[in-house]
């Protein structure tokens, strides 16, 4: 199995965070929710970084608090409710740590309950 990209960030997340590998990505779960996807692959590198699980209503406040965050759009033009912190951003490390701190404080703007995430924490 490939190593988790940006694994230094796991030190900034709560101890009971669950990391699940997927194809080219790692799903990050906490408190019954999917909170992030860590992605770093050669294919479509513009999508590499931290995918932030959120709702559209929280986009503006998260982007205001952490300006490195951008909208996330798949190549097909499909718009998602996810946000992206690109691993190419100059402030990637600092912004990523800020995101982890928000998760650690159980910030309601980050994370969604899915059937998989709920089952992991039963």
From TrEMBL:
Alphabetical UniProt keywords: Membrane, Transmembrane, Transmembrane helix
Protein source organism: Mucilaginibacter mali
Keyword Membrane on entry: yes
Name of protein: YjbR protein
Membrane-spanning parts: 12-30
């Amino acid at each position: 199995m490939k190593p988790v990209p940006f694994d230094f960030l796991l030190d900034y997340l709560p101890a009971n965070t669950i990391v699940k590998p997927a194809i080219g990505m790692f799903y990050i779960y906490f408190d019954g929710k999917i909170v992030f996807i860590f992605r770093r692959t050669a294919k479509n590198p513009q999508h590499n970084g931290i995918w932030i699980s959120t709702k559209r209503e929280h986009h503006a406040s998260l982007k205001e608090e952490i300006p490195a965050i951008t909208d996330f759009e798949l190549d097909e033009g499909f718009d998602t409710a996810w946000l992206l912190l690109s691993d190419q951003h100059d402030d990637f490390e600092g912004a990523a740590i800020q995101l982890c701190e928000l998760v650690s404080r159980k910030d309601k703007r980050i994370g969604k309950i899915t059937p998989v995430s709920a089952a992991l924490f039963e």
